[in-house]
Amino acid sequence: MKLKSLLFFLAAMMPLSISAEKLVEKETGLPLNQKTPEIQTYMIDGNPATLADISGDKGAILVFYRSADWCSFCKKHLIEINGWNQKFNDIGYKFAGISYDSTDILKTFSDAQNIAFPLLSDPQSKTIISYNILNTEQKPGSKGYGIPFPGIMLINPEGVLTYKYFYEGYKDRVNLEELYNSLK
């Protein structure tokens, strides 16, 4: 009898566990099909970066992430992007990562992992704020204040936002193979 009760309980819980794993889109960021503000970031050498500096022929893929210093999910994702970087470059798109990390932190991570795309420092989160993706779950004064909600934005050569991917939480990231196949 106990086995039947256990099986019934497990069967009843199954739909809950499946629905809990569905990705929930995060309503954040600038509206699609509108011109984006200029980024206010710095390359790891300390020089300012512009959208024109980081864009390919078909546009830029901005990767907003929490930190290359303390976020293991972000580090893993940046390394994964690095593996896809040349394929995206070959079809006209260039990646650029943006976080609130200092240029020193980004240089250390970039050098250690041989990252081939620019990691841009947004130390006062000006770009993160102007792109409307400041993580509102982090309170002023906390270690995480100034981080973005993680996700990507694709900006065409005219500076128009044509695609964005943001989901609740910080563990789910864009599927690079699906993105690549949709762009090629």
Question: Helices, strands, pairings?
Answer:
Blueprint: H1 2-20, E1 41-42, E2 48-49, H2 51-54, E3 59-64, H3 72-90, E4 93-99, H4 103-113, E5 119-121, H5 126-130, E6 151-155, E7 161-166, H6 176-183
Parallel strand pairs: 3-4, 4-5
Antiparallel strand pairs: 1-2, 3-6, 6-7
Write up what this structure looks like.
There is one protein chain. This protein has 184 residues and is of the alpha/beta class. It has a single domain (25-183), classed as Glutaredoxin, CATH 3.40.30. Helix content is 36%, strand content 17%. The protein is built from 6 helices and 7 strands, in the order H-E-E-H-E-H-E-H-E-H-E-E-H. The protein has helices at 2-20, 51-54, 72-90, 103-113, 126-130, 176-183, and strands at 41-42, 48-49, 59-64, 93-99, 119-121, 151-155, 161-166. Strands 5-4-3-6-7 form a 5-stranded mixed sheet. Strands 1-2 form a two-stranded antiparallel sheet.
